[in-house]
Amino acid sequence: MKFLHTRIRVSNLDTTIDFYQKLGFKLRDRKDSPQGNKLAFLEIPDSEHFLELCYSPDFKVDFPEDLMHTCVGVDDVIAYCDKLENDGIEIWPENWRSKFADPANRQMAFVTDPDGYEVEILPL
């Protein structure tokens, strides 16, 4: 048995694809579902689990804060967060650079996608 994918509803497929591509995801495929939804499948190279984005013009994306999040592991959290910040993505905690400079603090950061889903960033 394997965990294969996670589906999230999004309010703008192209904006969300662009956001996740900045995080390092690759667009694997786009298609329409039999129910009329627009789907996009994103993956991280060398990862078996993929992210399925689902857009439906009749569905309003609205969920309680902190309902769910995804998580990516990276070799160098500081370099990764620096790249994202340079791409215009807000990293939190707000003072992540000074916090991560102290070896006593755990390197754990978050970004928020265009619909409010959180993406946790942890070291591998």
Automatic annotation (TrEMBL):
One Pfam family from the record: Glyoxalase
Gene3D superfamilies according to UniProt: 2,3-Dihydroxybiphenyl 1,2-Dioxygenase, domain 1
InterPro entries xref list: Glyas_Bleomycin-R_OHBP_Dase (IPR029068), Glyas_Fos-R_dOase_dom (IPR004360), Glyoxalase_1_CS (IPR018146), VOC_core (IPR037523)
Domain VOC: 2-124
SUPFAM superfamilies with a match to the protein in the record: Glyoxalase/Bleomycin resistance protein/Dihydroxybiphenyl dioxygenase (SSF54593)
Keywords: Metal-binding
This protein's name: Aldoketomutase
